[in-house]
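Hi support team,

I'm opening this ticket because the web form for multi-chain structure prediction keeps timing out on my end. I have pasted the exact lines I submitted so you can reproduce it. The total is 847 residues across two entries, so I didn't expect it to be a heavy job. Is there a limit I'm missing, or should I split the entries? Thanks in advance, R.K.
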Amino acid sequence: MLHIKPILVALKRHKAGTILIAMQIALTLAIVCNALFIIDQRLDRIARPTGLDESNLVIIRNRWVGVTDEATGPLIHGDVQALRQLPGVQDAISINSYPLAGGGWSTGVRVNVDDKKSKAHTTLYFSDEHMLPTMGARLIAGRNFTPDEVTDAKANAVDTPAVIIITKALAHDLFPDGSALGKSVYVSDTKKPSTIVGIVERMQVPWNSSWADAWAENAVFQPYVLMYSGNVLLIRTKPGQQDAVMKSAPEMLFKLNRMRVFPKENGVRTFANQRESIYKRDRGMAILMGVVCLVLLGITAAGIVGLTSFWVGQRRKQIGVRRALGATKRDILSYFLTENLLIGTVGVLIGALMAIGMNLWLVTQFEMARLSLAYVAIGVVALLLLGQGAVLAPAMRASRVQPVEATRSV
Amino acid sequence: MFAYYLQLGLRSLRKNPLLTVLMVMAIGCGVAASMTTYSVFRATSNNPIPNKSSQLYVPQIDNWGPEEAAENKGEPPSSLSYTDAINLMRDKRAKRQTALYPVALSIVPDDMNMLPFRENSYAVYADAFPMFDVPFLFGGGWTASEDNAHAAVAVIGRELNDKLFHGANSVGREINLNGRTYRITGVMDTWNPEPMFYDPVNTNAFADPTEVFIPYTRAIELEMPTFGNNNCNKDPGNGWDSWVHSECVWTGFWVELPTKADADAYRRYLDGYVAEQQRSGRFKWPKNNRLRNVTEWLDFQKVVPQEAKVSLLVSMGFLLICLVNTVGLLLAKFMRRAPEIGVRRALGASRKEIYTQFLIEAGAVGLAGGVVGLLLTGVGVIGVSLVFDPQIARLAELDTSLVALTLLVAVLATVLAAFYPTWRAAQVQPAWQLKSN
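Hello R.K., no limit was hit. The queue was backed up. Here is the completed structure from your submission:
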């Protein structure tokens, strides 16, 4: 049973302390809710699947030196042939980009030749019939490219292919009724149709930034080997051979032709490395917010312990009187717990409003989503529990005050 | 009296070590979080060229029309088309001007044992060097006539010069870029403006220094595509010529306009230029130009990472909570000493002296918090690399000004937090305290 009235009367005499604790709880709730929300958003982003089979995948960013784009064709074919024969390599391709690469091609796709506006936005991946197996993409309908469909194309003069493969997400955007397979679409500004011959379960775009979020899994695969002085060699190694290939592939490529450059820092890396570096900011931000939350909760708890201890010390005599008049230890304990619950409730109510207000402001300032109320609810429960936990030790001490203290003068 | 009060304060702090440690840690954590995130914010919002930031401008011209602009909050594209860049260069209405774009250049060393390597490279006009205050170790930029002649000349960075020529004066010597020979006209001294104001569009504004500059006209003649972003609103068609003459936007542009009058005149010129394009039928929409100076440009390009702003905000909130916490703890601490205050007041101490005594005590707590905060800031600055890219993380440093700021914020904040508890302490009635004892 709660004795709320005497508690309220007592709190009136400790206005400053009461307000301080309530304020601290409110501010902590506001910040913890938003921090938790940021953590969750970042973790969600990191958890997005790429559609690649990410293990045993090696990426080499190749740049030819002193070769015109047209002249790169035979060199690129030479590289790819040699890589496919390298021990430890299961398959290899030359491609323009890949998921999480950071840069790539994007364009619109139209359903009818006369459409003014494109129906969906997409990225483009160019390579030969080894593209899907090397990437580890799962074909869910239709077929892969055949070798005779693949041609070379100059990077600044890419034509419209007769056949394309698209992702399930793009198929859904273009033909929501699920009838994409076998249909013709118009990629970019072309008048020539491309027939969809295959649908892949999933392949992410090269970008991780928010501008591509709306079409993060829209991709068109085109059967072109781009003749371009800056290409990417994607290598699927046999299981356990990744490290060996990381060493042997660049050596072999330089032996084949030394007029090329792999960037110093990230020229040759595994897909796992690439994923880690791309999501570094997101992961770091989640860790930072997590640390802030923990320290903040710790400090708030410590503050409650400190102030309540002070109150207990101040009221030893009154506690003694109550005990002498028949209050049990439980009564004293529940008095302090209830007092904290009252202050905490006021704090979390104000804090919940502040959390929502702070989020609304963050939404206007930064590209952030609306706070889901579940976070506020979690925060409210967490802070009330924290308050009760923090007040427990001083309250126990209070309950151990002997009735005899009522008779002492100090 | 100061020394005496300090001594009293320290003695009182020693009396409840737990409470003291709690306060010191709270202040230390709050200050450290704020200072660490501030160090990143300060580095990323730095003015990279303070003497000229209000004289260098980026013109933007809407060559795509309102439909495309609407998708970008009504803003024209961030880069120019080659057509517009060349027209602005030809008209030469600013004191100095340069078009620029990143090119993929690899250096082929004469030494056959060394493999070719890539360095960040830009194609610019001769004006770029005096415009951007580029410091030179040897020689200088090339001349306008070399721009006109599409000359095979280059300016290289100090680091590259050290690597290729072991730091010797290499002016007049040759360098092989992408298999072609260029004559070096100058070697830059270390030059790495951060943020890299001249091209935030194609970088995240925090990149490794640019080590090679070649003439824009030469790069175009050799049909070097941009190494940065190329954005087209429609298919440019096949081949180099159709791309260069398309409405694709990919080239940067800077003008130097020393006075406000010059900037206004240039704005009028841009309006006139757009009107001319409208008359010729190229732009079928109302003018939508911008002319932004360095600061406005960096702001518009959102060079300060969102993470830097959010984490600064969160840590300021964190500091605020730590201070509220400190107010509470100081209140508890001071009020516990009400009897002592009563005795002092009864013996003749004035309210002012009580104020002084307790504020000094709070200052001592603040200073201790500052020292803890300083240590934690040191740890935090190292930890910055967890959240930010290495190029940004290395800019966050614990320099003397940050050390001073950390201590100052800690002491000021704590003394500020102590005002209310001190006021309460000074209100203690001596008679009441003495009676109840």
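A quick check on our side: Residues 1 and 148 of chain B are 77 Å apart (CA to CA). Let us know if the file doesn't open in your viewer.
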